[in-house]
Amino acid sequence: MKIAAVIPAYNSAHFLKECIDSVLAQTYPLAEIVVVDDGSRDHTRELVESYGGGHVHYFWQENRGLSAARNAGVRETASPWVGFLDADDRWEPRKIELQVKALEADPEAVLCYTGKLLAGPGERRSVVEAFPADRLWPRMRYENNITPSTVVMRRDALATAGGFDEKLRACEDWDLWVRLGPGCRMVAVKDPVTWYRVSEGSMSMDADRMLAAVSRMLATSLPRGLSGLSRWAWLRRAWSAELSRCALSAREVRDRRSRRFLLRSLAAWPSPFFLSWRWKALALEMAREMF
Q: What angle do helix axes 228-252 and 258-268 make, rounded to 10 degrees?
């Protein structure tokens, strides 16, 4: 299997060497490595060029966002398989080897993802095993369980789906998995062999940005294949779920809108059987204020 690694980078030079080195250290060698510099103002170009231009290729574009950078990187490669890796993440040495084995064991699969290690501030680490592939749907309509840096996928499947939506400034990965649809065969490597960096300034912590992206998805990809009451119900659940995630991220960054997001989530879909922790979280917040 020939696999290309596509690394989008924007002002990430302080992480990029570790990222590239983790690709070069794979026990299953990558056929191509492309770093797409999305208009960085740091020393990204100099760092990539220090690798000598042999196996690591540099491509520059005006700043157009993560989706455009990934799409441009894919266009610069020729391999039938593509692995994505954000510049602030990294791979464990056997990551690609394990994915190749999983894909060879299931020839109909067009995408493979892995578990991950969350690297938070102050050297905090936590393990997240890969979500079972046979349970992705219909859950994927309200929750994304696949991180781009964990993914290896067929180039032709990506092309058929239309690539990453360049109008989205967040959730572009989730949108792509949804457009691939439940008929797309996916497999998981349970092992946490991808390091995913989490910080207070990360995109997922920006509630307004995330809500804007999900609003667009509610009008485009998320209701695909649905109609009538089923469509209405899934859209309400998806909006409720995103508001609940915004409540959690708001609490993390001390955004005072945390309770408001929780209340909006419950108003959108109040069922105690859907994300039941929301009611407990609201009760705890109210109790803290009372005592």
A: 170
Radius of gyration for the alpha carbons in the chain, expressed in angstroms and rounded: 20
Domain residue ranges of the chain, discontinuous segments joined by +: 3-197, 226-290
How many whole angstroms separate alpha carbon 207 and alpha carbon 150? Answer: 24
φ, ψ (nearest 5 deg) of residue 194: -120, 130
183: helix, coil or strand? coil
Q: Match 């290896």 to its residue by tokens.
A: 152
What average pLDDT score do residues 8-35 get? 96
174: how many CB neighbours lie within 10 A of its CB? 21
How many other CB atoms sit within 10 Å of the CB of residue 262? Answer: 22
Structure tokens at 273: 């059987």
Sequence-separated (6 or more) residues with CB below 8 Å from residue 46: none
123-147, pLDDT tens digit by residue? 668 899 999 999 999 999 999 999 9
Which of 3.50.30.30, 3.90.550.10, 3.30.70.1230, 3.30.420.40 would CATH assign to domain 3-197? Answer: 3.90.550.10
Helical ranges in 127-170 per DSSP H? 155-161
Sequence-ordered strand ranges (E) for 70-173 = 81-84, 90-91, 111-119, 125-128, 152-154
pTM of the model as a whole: 0.92
Kindly state the greatest CA–CA separation across the chain: 64
Instruction: Name residue, tokens 């859209």.
Output: 235
**Residue 111 forms beta bridges with which residues?**
153, 186
> Using CA atoms, how far apart are residues 291 and 287, in angstroms rounded to an integer?
6
For residues 8 and 21, what is the distance between their CA atoms, to the nearest angstrom? 15
